[in-house]
Amino acid sequence: MPAPGENLRINSARLWDSLMEMALIGPGVAGGCNRQTLTDADGEGRHLFKRWCEAAGMTMGVDTMGNMFASRPGTDPDALPVYMGSHLDTQPTGGKYDGVLGVLGALEVVRTINDMGLKTRHPIVVTNWTNEEGARFAPAMLASGVFAGIHTQDYAYDRTDPEGKRFGDELARIGWVGDEVVGARKMKAMFELHIEQGPILEAEGKSIGVVTHGQGLWWLEITLTGKDAHTGSTPMAMRVNAGLGMARITERVHQIAMSHQPNAVGAVGQVFVHPNSRNVIPGKVVFTVDIRSPEQAKLDAMRAEVERAAHAVAAELGLGCSIEPVGHFDPVTFDPELVGIVRASAEKLGYTHMDIVSGAGHDACWINRVAPTTMVMCPCVDGLSHNEAEEISPEWAAAGTDVLLHAVLQVAEVVE
């Protein structure tokens, strides 16, 4: 059977309604969402997603990392499934669309296929990956990392949140420890629809980002140790100020990233200051440096330069300094054939598009290690994400999901 024509589109209103209904679970304080991984809100969102999938005729499988796999059968029981999906967990002050669009857009693809009465030779699976954000349990993309063999399950289960709660215990607490062995599933391909989380597509007036590569990254957790002391009675020359050390390293991170332009970024994100009192010189600071580039040589160089700079600043100020990598993946090249299918689908549907490099990490970056993978992106207003003000338009959501629909149908092979 020939590929469906360009008149085949998803139900935009139904997709938008689903996004808005999911956003009611774990609402934020400023219009976004706080549905952090393995919280009660995450559990509630999972149950809603499961109900929707079962209503669409799919069967739900869950592995021991809590990854959810909703399957629509194909006509060939031996054909490898085509996967699509993203994540339902959010940042503490997250938006309604980061990750969620990729999961509910994939569900809408299946709903549309059902509406049209189409059959595919390959099964189709909609996936919700656990703990993509890494906001509560570092590192990010934890469960897809276990699936791809990057991390062991024991390592993942032993991750703790800022309150000392273990990942494995919290997964069991909310009732989402499945019985499937992580990574046992085999894939023909995986697609991930996502908002860009950057300003390029909107600025260029493009509806679709054809993602060819993903940036590599290092998260380096730096601990500086000085001496707590009274801010008023300690002479300047006698201070061992961990906060000053962090400030100087923060500036150096910016300088290092700027020195590797183009295609390099870096900043200090998470910061814990001890004792965090207004009249005490910080005796200890723990903070995370985030550096990224799609070019391996630049990524490696920046890590080395940041570590040298941190140790040099610490030595100058008399601080103790330790550096621990807490997140990493190399730059990603997505499957050229799948990239071409996404590009052709956008063209067939008449959507403006451009090739783009993903600036953020995604579950697709890990799954790319074990199966052909690619991503579809749509714009977000002002490039804003990881923020409750994150916004997209229904038209952008529909365009991205339309492209996902046509790309998945081509790879899953529509049959008579």
Automatic annotation (TrEMBL):
An annotated Gene Ontology molecular function: hydrolase activity, acting on carbon-nitrogen (but not peptide) bonds, in linear amidines
Pfam families: M20_dimer, Peptidase_M20
Domain Peptidase M20 dimerisation, residue spans: 215-314
The protein's name in its UniProt record: Zn-dependent hydrolase
InterPro entries in the cross-refs: Amidase_Cbmase, Bact_exopeptidase_dim_dom, Peptidase_M20, Peptidase_M20_dimer
Superkingdom of the source species: Bacteria
Organism, as annotated: Gemmobacter lutimaris
Keyword Hydrolase in annotation: yes
